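Hi R.,

As promised on Friday, here is the backbone we talked about, encoded as structure tokens. Could you run it through your design pipeline when you get a chance and send me back a sequence?
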């Protein structure tokens, strides 16, 4: 059995970045890789590495689960589950913590960035987050992990830990590989195109949330930061705002940057932004319609129940093997 695994943290409403960098690709990979089983989960244990309101967290968990289906995942070959409902994730994370070195965790750039944003003190779980991520992946021997560019470093660490464990205790884990799209793997903030678009942002104006009113999405795109050059040209260094908008345009429409440049040759940013706003709104309107159907459906509840059982079955077996290889217990 060959497995592809990925997750999204329910720390808020997923963004256009999450969609273009991750969610949208899951359904596309499903179409192309029919001999793979897809293990897709709601990463709620990852969410509590930063403070969460319990009621909001519960709602966000259901939202993310519904959005997976709304964004194109199909129930065939799918194990959809909630991370905290499969207790082996937390147990395997402890094993990974015993394996990973402090220096490796200290080098993680996402940790360093997130520490700067914390106002209430930094939890030790934020520091050990990559150990939990390695556990998520290795528990199921996932071969491929489709993620956005920001997860590249964590994925590399998961590979190192799999190799380290295999060298120390004998071949146990599959060494995973990332599936990172060339385009759309790092969508930037609309107000500050040097930063990635984050769902836990301080400035909502730079971020498009998948469940926000369509009229607001139009406004945000029209107000996106550009430059004074007034020429639609792909140049991430000199024109990061326009390059980001062109990336969004290109991923959704599947038009190349050259084609987009030719279409807007001699036109200003106004036309380009208006068209992009309609393209994004059309895509998100479709997602919202499907989300409203799935979020309160019995279909979703049943999928999550079945997913929990299937994930637990595999995870339990793997954890037992790991304990045995390490000499734990009797
Ligand atoms: N801007 C982005 N562009 C492309 N892909 C992105 N991803 C995240 N942001 C972008 C990818 O989406 C998947 C799920 O992400 P996540 O839930 O683990 O993290 P997040 O959206 O980055 O969420 P947070 O923690 O609420 O906020 P920040 O951003 O502060 O960490 C992943 O595959 C990710 O690569």
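Update: got your reply. Pasting your designed sequence below so it's all in one thread:
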């Amino acid at each position: 059995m060959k497995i592809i695994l990925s997750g999204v943290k329910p720390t808020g409403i997923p963004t256009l970045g999450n969609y273009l960098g991750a969610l949208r690709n899951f359904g596309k990979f499903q179409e192309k890789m029919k001999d793979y089983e897809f293990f897709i989960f709601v990463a709620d244990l990852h969410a509590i590495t930063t403070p969460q309101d319990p009621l909001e967290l519960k709602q966000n968990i259901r939202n993310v689960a519904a959005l997976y289906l709304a964004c194109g995942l199909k129930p065939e070959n799918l194990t959809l589950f909630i991370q905290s409902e499969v207790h082996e994730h937390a147990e395997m994370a402890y094993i990974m913590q015993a394996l990973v070195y402090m220096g490796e965790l200290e080098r993680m750039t996402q940790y360093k960035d997130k520490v700067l944003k914390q106002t209430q003190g930094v939890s030790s779980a934020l520091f050990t987050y990559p150990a939990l991520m390695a556990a998520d992946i290795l528990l199921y021997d996932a071969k491929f992990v489709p993620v956005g560019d920001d997860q590249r470093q964590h994925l590399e660490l998961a590979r190192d830990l799999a190799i380290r464990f295999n060298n120390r205790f004998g071949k146990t884990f599959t060494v995973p590989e990332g599936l990172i799209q060339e385009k759309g793997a790092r969508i930037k903030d609309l107000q500050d195109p040097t930063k990635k678009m984050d769902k836990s942002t301080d400035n909502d104006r730079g971020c498009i949330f998948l469940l926000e009113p369509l009229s607001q999405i139009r406004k945000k795109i029209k107000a996106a930061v550009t430059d004074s050059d007034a020429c639609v040209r792909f140049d991430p260094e000199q024109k990061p705002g326009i390059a980001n908008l062109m990336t969004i345009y290109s991923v959704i429409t599947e038009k190349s940057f050259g084609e987009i440049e030719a279409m807007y040759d001699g036109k200003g940013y106004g036309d380009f932004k208006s068209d992009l706003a309609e393209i994004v709104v059309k895509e998100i309107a479709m997602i919202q319609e499907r989300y409203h159907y799935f979020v309160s459906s019995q279909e979703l509840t049943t999928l999550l129940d079945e997913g929990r059982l299937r994930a637990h079955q595999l995870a339990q077996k793997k954890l037992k093997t790991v304990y045995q290889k390490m000499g734990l217990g009797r």
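One thing I noticed while checking it: DSSP finds 13 helices and five strands in the chain.

Thanks again,
M.
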